[in-house]
Amino acid sequence: MLTRAELKTMLWSRGDEQRSLFEAARAARLTGIGDSCILRGVIEVTNVCRVNCDYCPMRRANTSRNDHYFLSADQIVDAARTILDSGIDIILLQGGETTGILPQIEEAIPEIIRMFDGSVEVLLNLGCLTTERYRRLKKLGAVSYILKHETSDPHLHRSLRHEALDDRLACLGALKDSGFKIGTGLISGLPGQTLDSIVDDLLLVDRYDADMCSVSPFIPARDTPMAQVAAGDLELSLNIVACLRILYPSLLIPSVSAFERAADGGQTSGLNAGANVLTVNFSSSERQKDYLIYGKDRFVVTAGHARKVARTAGLNVRGSVFLPRSGTSSPFPDQSGERARERASRPDLARRINVSAEANPQSNFSDFDPSAADLRTSFEEAGVRPNDVVALAGLRGPDILAGAVALWSIDAIPFPLPPDTHVPFADLIVSSDLTVMAGTGVPDRRGLDRTAVLQLTSGSTNVPKIARRSIESVYDETAGYIGGLGLDFSSCVRIPVPLAHSFGWGVAISAALAGCRLMLDLVSLPSRLARELDEGTISHLAVTPALAGLVATSKPSGDGRLATVLVGAGSASPNLLDALRARFGAQPVLGYGSTETGGTFLGSDGIGKPIEAVEVRAPALGQRGELVIETRAPVLGYVGDPPGCDRVWRTGDLIDCEPDGTFRCLGRISGPLRLNSRFVETEPYKAALFRLPEVDDVAFLVLPEDHRNLEVLCAAVAGQGLRREAVAHALANASRQHGACSIFLFDRLPRNTLGKLDRNKLISSIRGGMA
Predict the structure, then answer these.
(1) SS3 (DSSP) at 22
(2) pLDDT below 70 — which residues of the chain?
(3) Do the Cβ atoms of 521 and 397 come closer than 8 Å?
(4) Burial profile 597-621: b = 16 or more Cβ within 10 angstroms, e = fewer
(5) Residue 679 CB contacts under 8 Å (≥ 6 apart), including other chains
(6) E strands, 571-693, where?
(7) Residue 533: DSSP 8-state
(8) Distance in angstroms (rounded) separating the CA atoms of residues 113 and 729
(9) What number of CA atoms fall less than 13 Å from residue 392's CA on the CB side?
(10) pLDDT score for 339
């Protein structure tokens, strides 16, 4: 344990010493609880208080001056439902200290727990009550309770709160004895406060074995006796956070909204000083202005702000640590266990999208509703049944989303396909004009009961297959995008990439579940997209590297700035990322995933870091090898294969895992190709070709000859100024050792709208050359 003198020195740190203090705090946090940030949602249940604290605008003496209110139990439950739909599993019921709100609290708690199916931490902050009342609240299902001591100096405490510190600490002990996880907290910068008393505040956490502790800088507020007192020093508050973290590595320490009120970026500074909790406000806008905790000009934290702050600090968003599923952190209900699996259904996906849209006045999902309603009617008239597969063939992005929601609502399975793509099978087919036609049926229905969507793999590295995406994986991918991109009701998300591809699909579904405003149409001209972005209404953009490069170099036509640019479905160069930062003022986020699993990595470097539902099995730190991941949701494999619930996925990508945990993709691991009943390695051919400076791109295919019953190894070689003789000479040695290889030259290899190799066009071009 640190000495009092050492703690006082740490509290006074500035400059290099303060930076070292914060680094030590972050290291302690990583050891104690990991690189995660816990989100909780607060409902401010009443602004009436019996106590007359000199620093608080909601003091008893101001009751007649303020517009006081008490929420009803129904209002509390309705607000809790919004928290559920936002993906947060901690509900903080907070209010002034009055027994007048307790009947509503006691009625609401069981309803909230039922609504969450038990997967919720009910956290209370209602002041000093009797031991009997604490026990009753605990019995009803509350898990944790915050009772801030404010200051451990008994004389200062009485002079500012007009009550005895011992009485408050006795309630803290009673809470602990009643079985609550307990939290306390202090105000820093109070007049008359000393460093010695702050050290006592730090040590009080150990004395009461507290699980949580907050630090708030004093903020003077109008209509209080302390309105003219100087504000507390933010730097001192941050140092207190750091000291708490070093003393108690696993303690829950919020980065409070008062930090942001004190300085722009204050909550990010709090996380960088060692905090690991953010509280999102879910009170109605009317009640937010009446809950005068820091006065009328307090800072109100939204879910998007909180997730952006966590991301800026390099932390992953997670859920409660006090629930039995504390190892998971999806912002959606836990998908483990039989009851949860029953709850994770296709109709549940549709319900959540509709609830999120209805809860957000800014949502434009109602624009898609007519299509969804018409399609649902068409589906019902066509006799679509649960588990039926419906191909959405060549539809626009908005119609794909509307069609998917309509199908999920009747427990059917969407199968989005790009334009001009052969429909391999389906029970029904929806064409681009939204006509519903009969399909040929589905030859293999195994594994479809847990399938949310069927998706066609790109075929860029093999023959295209049809992947079954599990319902659970959609929730986990959504949790990753919401946390990694900071999506919330205030977000307007532009997705100018095909929703028939897993990248565009995953972002669109995640944004819909988050209640965002959506813009889903493709663009024919990058300049048109750039003008949209410059108008200033779009906050988030999801693009491929190729499209990102075009809009990043466009000439600005307005002052629009983006919160986030997500670059996925391909690798992005450092120059491209710099150009995006300069053009749109946003830190680009890199995405990585596969059709079979959905998005699995997000971050600002390499391929990002694994989302919360993903663990890396290989390669180890400092090693190179195939990326092997373990997912919380089952990977269901492909239609036609036996259904499995394997959670280990071999990506086929070669990865460098750097010592600091950065993952860098070096390309695909080229497996052998089967040629005339034997296997041929393509690496020797590829290595020989890339020794030619003119070669930009290479792909290998095995195709049958028309006039002989044999297969031919074909090398498609792309580059400017290629000469067939030079290419043949480069391949001569490899051909002698490993077999002949037919050569086909291109200026560039055909690629689809996502920049991936278009095998069908490539095969057509090669067959034309073989004819």
Answers:
(1) helix
(2) 64, 294-296, 324-343, 368-373, 459-463, 644-645, 670-671, 677, 706-709, 753-755, 769-771
(3) yes
(4) bbbbbbbeebbbbbbbbbebeebee
(5) 672, 673
(6) 588-594, 598-603, 609-610, 614-618, 624-635, 646-657, 663-668, 673-675, 678-680
(7) H
(8) 72
(9) 30
(10) 37
What pLDDT score was predicted for residue 334? 39
Helix axes 502-513, 346-359, angle to 10 degrees: 60
In Å, how far are 420, 528, 529 from 525, measured between CA atoms? 21, 5, 7
Task: Name residue 698's beta-bridge partners.
Answer: 717
What's the DSSP call for residue 500? T
Terminal-residue alpha carbon distance, the chain = 81
- Give CA 160 to chain center in angstroms: 42
Q: What's residue 325's pLDDT?
A: 45
Cα distance between residue 538 and residue 271, in whole Å: 28
Please, how many CA atoms are within 13 Å of residue 614, restricted to the half-sphere of its CB? 32
Q: Helix or strand or coil: residue 381? A: helix
The packing angle between helices 4-11 and 195-207, to 10°, is 120
Which residue is associated with the tokens 């200033």?
536
Q: Are 193 and 154 in contact (CB under 8 A)?
A: no
Pairwise CA distance, residues 562 & 546, whole Å: 19
Residue 275: the pLDDT is 97
Q: Which residues fall within 8 angstroms of residue 531, CB to CB, at 6 or more apart?
A: 557, 558
Q: What CA–CA distance (Å, rounded) separates 515 from 517?
A: 7
Q: What is the DSSP string of 193-245?
A: --HHHHHHHHHHHHHTT-SEEEEEE----TTSTTTTSPPPPHHHHHHHHHHHH
- 497, 418 Cβ separation under 8 angstroms: no
Non-local (6+) Cβ contacts of 203 within 8 A are none
Q: What residue type is assigned to position 564 of the chain? A: T
The answer for 369, left when phi > 0, alpha when psi is -120 to 50, beta otherwise, is: alpha
